[in-house]
Sequence to fold (91 residues):
Amino acid sequence: MNKQEFLALFGKTNDCTLADARKMVNYFTDTVSLALSKGEDVELVGFGTFKVKRSAEREGRNPKTGAALTISARNTITFKVGQPLKDACNK
Fold:
């Protein structure tokens, strides 16, 4: 499901227009992005938890040439699925 399909389903299931659905989804994603950019975890009970983790600098290889290179340290985002969501997907 792409974003447009998600917005259509969101609007239909919540009885709102496509424009309202787009606003609400954008508010949600913007708020999660803002919290994560500040280093905060976002825990949605029953759904899951978004966390920022730091990956250390490491050595890697260029797949074409095999030459060694350094992959810089960076932040990555993880999502741990909540049990109710797991249960809903395994019915």
Notes: Strands lie at 42-44, 48-55, 58-61, 68-71, 74-81. The mean pLDDT is 95.
